[in-house]
Specification:
The chain has two domains: 73 residues, Helix Hairpins (Orthogonal Bundle), CATH 1.10.287; 29 residues. The longest helix is centred in the middle third of the chain and has 22 residues. The radius of gyration is 16 Å and the shape is globular. It has six helices and no strands. The protein is an all-alpha fold.
Length: 109
């Protein structure tokens, strides 16, 4: 058995974007527009924070899965490929955290 990856989940989300809202929760989120998907992402982030503060390992895993799913829905909706996000993470790993943060500040108008 191969390991399930975020690429696998992104492919499932992309495939379900061609479904109907009646048949797919993913499609219903996409059809509801960016604000709905972003709101769900925020809700899941808050639920993960609560689980982390409480130290509930099972809830941390569950809420992390929800957060990753909703993040990938937001990416799908925005036309941003997971590979773009991973490329940005890779770019950042070549810098120290302090350097990366300073570089972001210098990019502001």
């Amino acid at each position: 058995m191969t390991a399930f990856t975020l690429d696998d989940l992104a492919a499932i989300i992309a495939a379900r974007s061609g479904s109907t809202a009646e048949a797919s929760y993913t499609k219903s989120l996409l059809d509801a527009g960016p604000a709905r998907a972003a709101k769900k992402l925020g809700e899941e982030a808050v639920e993960l924070v609560i689980a982390a503060v409480e130290g509930d390992r099972k809830a941390i895993a569950s809420e992390s899965a929800d957060l990753l799913y909703h993040l990938l829905v937001v990416l799908q909706q925005g036309g941003v490929a997971l590979s773009e996000v991973l490329a940005e993470l890779e770019r950042r790993t070549n810098l120290s955290g302090h350097q990366e943060k300073a570089a972001r500040k210098s990019d502001l108008p």
